[in-house]
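Problem statement: downstream parser choked on a complex file, so we are re-checking the raw output for the adenosine-5'-diphosphate run. The parser issue turned out to be on our end (a line-ending mismatch), but while we're here, posting the original submission so the record is complete.
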Amino acid sequence: MPTIHLLPDLLVSQIAAGEVVERPASALKELVENSLDAGAGAIRVDLEEGGIRLLRVADDGVGIARDDLALALARHATSKIATLADLEAVASLGFRGEALASIAAVARLTLTSRAAGAQHAWRIAAQDGIVSLPEPAALARGTVVEVRDLFFNTPARRKFLKTIATEYAHCEEALRRMALGRPGVAFEFWHNGRVIWRHGPQAWDERVMAVMGEDFTRAARTVDASAGEIRLHGLVGLPAYHRAGRDAQYLYVNGRHVRDKLLGHAVREAYRDVLHHERHPAYVLFLDLPPQRVDVNVHPAKTEVRFRDARAVHQFVLHSLERVLGRQQSGDRGQTTEGLALSTRRGEAQGGDGMPESSTATTSSSLCPSAARGEGGRHPGTLPMAIAEPAAYYGMVAEALAEPASAPASPASQPSPPLGYAIAQLAGTYILAENDAGLVVVDMHAAHERIVYERLKEALDGARMAAQPLLIPVVFAASPLEMVTVEESGADLAAMGFELAPVSPTHLAVRALPALLKEADAEGLARQVLREIQAVGAGKVLTARRNELLATLACHAAIRVNRRLTLPEMNALLRDMERIPRADQCNHGRPTWFQLTLADLDRLFMRGK
Ligand code: ADP
Ligand code: MG
């Protein structure tokens, strides 16, 4: 019979470390949270080799007294709570008293600190469960924690670490999240002796701009809503700024970055009618509420929370966002309201803006950014076709496809092709064509997108996609995550016809594109495909998510709105459309063309009968 015994202390800590310290980025998160809890106004982070070799976090916070240094490394030792009541209203990021103990159990750690009023600083070092006595050290103020050789004594854990580049990218992301959550604190981030980024103390919107970039802030709306003691503020990306992955979603509860199912669901719901279900919104949102109303002690890494009144919080977030996103839509529609008010839907219009809640036109322009019209572009709402109910309209499309020659209107003895012959281009957006039944209106971007998509599918079905080398490689500034993705997924990228290579630690070059897409914007395409890989993994991009990827690429490559086409070009597009399957819907499910029969026109002008 096996005997029962207590585990040695070091082993207990190493087991506990499994939950808290998964990789350098999780250790970094704990250290920076400690600095924030210590009231730091400035935090400097230094990494070597992706944080595997060294993680150093220096702050100007309250510091630790000499006699508390060793305690800080003990398990279940904390200065942040003392009673159950404290736990139930905890306002600090840490409170479990296990992070430093866990990290010290799986790395070589030194802790140097100078408490306010102390003559000088003190340092202790810990390794394999043995903690040295405090020694005097030089430090002007605050605390410096150094963590070297993570998992050096737990080889099984060390094996799970990925490449330096990957670990680095995770650290960068972790620090970026904390910098976004604490705009008032200055941050500096160094890797291998070079500064990567730094932010001084900022207002929250300045910090969001600095971290997320101007593209996002320009394509976002401000949210600021409160109900009693709950407040939600931040920036939500407009539907047109959609993403392939969830990489630009930042949610904070009382300054703590969380991945919360309930909140995530509320946000998704708010975007439901304005965003394609396979695309993801971008946002930075801060939810603040009294600490008693949220339980943060749900998970050792404290990335999940539990709300005491979950339903109320869900509804509050949902409605606050709906209001902002909804207001935006009606703003977009401003220019089209007049035209639509003429349509027969006037009586059914919901709300005061004279527009039904989910018009095909409005929704669709949010799906594929390149389909959006520029300023001054005209809207289909001014055409009588806005009259058609979507269902009726698909019916007509099907009918027209089934019986292309049923209408006797054409003077020629030869029946016209199903989509007829182009007669003009309208508003840089639509091709007008005449067929035997009457007038055909084609959304040229949507149609072209569909054609490119089908061709890409065909090409990829025949094994690998043919690549077209670029005469002059296109170089662009890439994020650390993009650099890593290229490094790790080169083979899969090649299978898709992409050749990407780093030309410096911060820049990538596109050397080849899929031959079918050679005219497209190389940087945009490359970024898109990297984003897809980051979101779902390279393997999945080529299998389960292949069609989504192709659809995104096609959207990028399709003819931009406002490009003038000649009649032969338009006719070529119409003939291509007739040849491909499911040409009547674009990849986002919206129609690509529309038939207005002579009978419809007669009815409009009250002719005959
Ligand atoms: P917790 O954060 O849950 O309290 P930790 O193991 O992370 O547990 O830290 C233990 C204690 O060490 C903290 O409660 C705090 O008193 C002290 N401490 C850790 N890091 C710092 C720091 N950067 N500045 C001041 N005190 C710190
Ligand atoms: Mg802590």
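For whoever reads this later: The radius of gyration is 30 Å.
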